[in-house]
Amino acid sequence: MKSNHQIYLSVKDYSVSREEFQLVPNAKYGYLETTPQPSLDNLAGYYESEDYISHTDSKRNLFEKAYHTIRNISLKRKLKLINSFNSEEKKLLDIGCGTGAFLKTAKDNAWEVCGIEPNEKARSIANNSCNNSVFNTEKLQSFKNESFDVITLWHVLEHLPNLELQISTFKRLLKPNGTLVIAVPNFKSYDALHYKNFWAAFDVPRHLWHFSRESISNLFKTESMKVEKTLPMVFDSFYVSILSEKYKKSFLKLLPAFFVGLRSNLKAKRSGEYSSLIYVIKNSKN
């Protein structure tokens, strides 16, 4: 995937390494690429932080407790979404499932579930509640073609190396007329444009790619997959703004973060440019 040489932004890794990376536009699809990207051998080291919240079920402070409260609301909405697809066999694959909260919610509501999670600690937690149905990344290659009615990636696509290969794998694993659900941050949102290099959802270098609505459509067209609709994730603007204020000023400033998050959502009602978006993508019949 060739990029042009224009630098969109220089961004620091505020949560782990303090290293600086560049965001470079991809000329073909329109997303931003983190440059330089860590090698696969080194990438795991950038996740070694107790603050990496999707790999833990801890509730050590007000921020983590709020995260889990919002997560519980989101789980109900996610379940309602996948139930709306009227899948015949209700076979679900959740890639990057973390500690398995969404998988367990789906399993408890008559879905046959599988998960992929590279982090060993998170995978162990998930398997305790999901009947050992969560596997390491290598398992993706051994699933049979057209195995799943629904494949979900909740804030995961931005973490995956070899992007075009991943998308062809999703295509292979989906049943004809199956549904792919992808949630990713939107670098064209108001909060992203407001915080610029302090925007927490850039999260370099763990986020290898940074998407817009146009780039998602462009990317999936290559596999004859179409974005059927987009849905907002309204809590994300507040969560990301709180972290962005912390990166900007080295301590939490809740009031400014709240107003930036609120303004982002209000502007997005007209523009559609929410802080994060859920894309419902349909597989083609062919």
Give your account of this protein's structure.
This protein is of the alpha/beta class. Helices cover 35% and strands 21% of the residues. The protein is built from 9 helices and 11 strands. The protein has a 7-stranded mixed β-sheet with strand order 6-5-4-7-8-11-10, sandwiched between helices. Strand 4, helix 3 and strand 5 (112-116) form a beta-alpha-beta unit. The mean pLDDT is 91.
Strand content bin: 15-25%
Give the topology string: H per helix, E per strand: EEEHHEHEHEEHEHEHEHHE
Q: How would a crystallographer describe the biggest sheet?
A: 7 strands, mixed
Query: What's the helix count?
Result: 9
Q: Helix fraction?
A: 25-40%
User: Tally of extended strands?
Assistant: 11
Output the structural class: alpha/beta
Q: What is the approximate shape? A: globular
Q: How would you name the oligomeric state of the polypeptide chains in this document? A: single chain
Round the Cα radius of gyration to an integer and report it: 18 Å
Query: Averaging pLDDT over every residue, what do you get?
Result: 91
Instruction: Show unreliable segments.
Output: none
Strands side by side in the biggest sheet:
6-5-4-7-8-11-10
Distance between the termini: 26 Å
Per-chain topology:
Layout: E1 9-12, E2 20-25, E3 32-35, H1 40-43, H2 62-83, E4 91-95, H3 101-107, E5 112-116, H4 120-129, E6 134-135, E7 148-154, H5 163-173, E8 174-185, H6 190-195, E9 209-210, H7 213-221, E10 226-232, H8 236-249, H9 254-271, E11 276-282
Parallel strand pairs: 4-5, 4-7, 5-6, 7-8
Antiparallel strand pairs: 1-2, 2-3, 3-9, 8-11, 10-11
